[in-house]
Write a structure and sequence with these properties.
Elements lengths: L4 H13 L4 H17 L14 H4 L27 E6 L2 E3 L3 E3 L2 E5 L14 H9 L4 E5 L9 E7 L7 E10 L4 E10 L6 E10 L4 E24 L4 E22 L5 E10 L4 E10 L5 E10 L4 E10 L6 E11 L5 E10 L4 E10 L3 H8 L5 H17 L5 H16 L2
Parallel strand pairs: 1-6, 5-7, 6-8, 7-9, 8-10, 9-10, 10-11, 11-12, 11-13, 12-14, 13-15, 14-16, 15-17, 16-18
Antiparallel strand pairs: 1-2, 3-4, 4-5
Length: 416
């Protein structure tokens, strides 16, 4: 059993100074006790068997969540289009409450609205114990936002903590619609642990498009958890672009609870050097006439390591389910590793579900064809890689953000 004495001491310091109500305090203590009883995840646990975080988490035996004094996001990092802003600097939320027509954005002070029961996930228990930052986004019924919401997570060179946690909520009431773009920027080069827990609730007929950019992380370890509940006729479009991430696990559970709801989940893993990135995704079809799509592509260089664990679960009453899952990887070095674990768990008879996974190198015949047209070998290879990954970006339905991610891909290619 690991020694967690320093973590216990820091939790006592935190809980004695954090201002909250008695119910929340009790919940935090219970969550921390659950974490201590299980400790950090181990590879013998099937859910963490292939996760890079198992080894990396051993570095964090103290979890110092000291706050720095930086309180502004550099203007150069801000997007140049009209948008609402939510800004985290060094793990601290810097936010002036927004109460616009049909829209509320404010600091999340209702931490107990999240996962209340004792969970099996030790990092979620840790998040529930320590999370002291987070936002709430709520749209009223029939609100269609024309301005996107941009969430900035900025870690400056002055960031000296080893740990930060946030718990966030996105609530869309009936027939509301919003685009949320979340980008994480790393200037800090120290080792630290980030845990993020975001819950999404989509009421009848609502639509959320969420696009996440996470790139160029040097030393930190990241656990991102998203849980989404979709009601009747609601839609979730969720895209993540992960580039050169030191060590990260993106875990999502999406519950399709109402008829004719649809979850469209797409992701890119673009990794070099010794980077490690893991996607663990489960979509639960809990009602009939629901639809889901999972599409993940990976391009791996050097000694990078990528993992995709995707599951489609179909309840016995979820007839007429349509579930699709595909993961494909380009292995661009003999030293890379790609692990894929596609799963189907089906208890209904009248369904259409498929899954598939493949990995391989760049097609040499296609390279030869491009070279015969006067294109250099290096350019031909990059064209093939960009075309391979670009198929996922094409799934984005908002042109502004489709262009952002294509530009990101081009920038990566030009600095190869």
């Amino acid at each position: 059993m690991e020694n967690y004495n320093e973590i216990k001491i820091n939790f006592e310091k935190f809980i004695n100074t954090f201002k909250t109500d008695d119910n929340d305090l009790e919940f935090r203590k219970k969550s921390f006790a659950n974490f201590i009883s299980k400790g950090f995840p181990i590879s013998r646990d099937e859910n963490w068997k292939y996760s890079p975080l198992v080894q990396d988490l051993k570095k964090f035996s103290h979890l110092n969540n000291k706050k720095t004094g930086i309180n502004a996001l550099p203007n150069a990092l801000k997007e140049n289009f009209d948008h609402y802003s939510i800004i985290f600097v060094d793990g601290v939320l810097i936010l002036t409450d927004i109460n616009d027509t049909g829209l509320v954005i404010k600091k999340n002070n209702s931490f107990l609205k999240s996962v209340k029961k004792a969970g099996e996930n030790p990092i979620l228990n840790l998040n529930n114990a320590f999370a002291d930052q987070g936002y709430l986004i709520e749209l009223s019924s029939n609100t269609i936002l024309t301005r996107p919401i941009v969430i900035y997570n900025y870690f400056s060179k002055n960031f000296l903590s080893s740990f930060c946690s946030s718990k966030n909520f996105i609530l869309l009431n009936e027939k509301s619609n919003v685009v949320v773009y979340e980008k994480t920027i790393y200037d800090s080069s120290i080792e630290y642990l980030i845990t993020s827990n975001t819950e999404i609730f989509l009421a009848k007929g609502s639509k959320l498009k969420k696009y996440d950019l996470n790139c160029n992380n040097k030393h930190s370890t990241i656990f991102n958890f998203v849980k989404a509940n979709l009601d009747e006729n609601s839609e979730l479009e969720y895209f993540t672009f992960s580039e050169n991430i030191n060590s990260c696990r993106d875990e999502s559970i999406i519950n399709l609870n109402g008829k004719n709801c649809f979850a469209n989940v797409n992701a890119i893993q673009l990794l070099r050097n010794n980077c490690n990135h893991e996607i663990k995704l489960q979509i639960n079809h809990n009602e009939e006439h629901t639809k889901s799509s999972q599409f993940v592509k990976s391009a791996l260089y050097d000694s990078a390591n990528a993992i995709f664990q995707g599951k489609i679960f179909v309840d016995s009453k979820a007839q007429k389910t349509d579930g699709y899952q595909l993961s494909r990887a380009l292995l661009l070095s003999d030293n890379v590793k790609f692990f894929s674990k596609p799963e189907l768990e089906i208890y209904a008879d009248d369904v259409k579900c498929s899954h598939g996974s493949s990995s391989g190198s760049v097609d040499e015949e296609s390279i030869f064809y491009l070279r015969s047209r006067g294109i250099s070998k290096e350019d031909a290879k990059m064209m093939m890689i960009n075309g391979f990954l670009g198929e996922v970006i094409e799934k984005i339905t908002e042109d502004k953000f489709k262009n952002i991610f294509f530009n990101k891909l081009d920038h990566y290619s030009n600095h190869d």
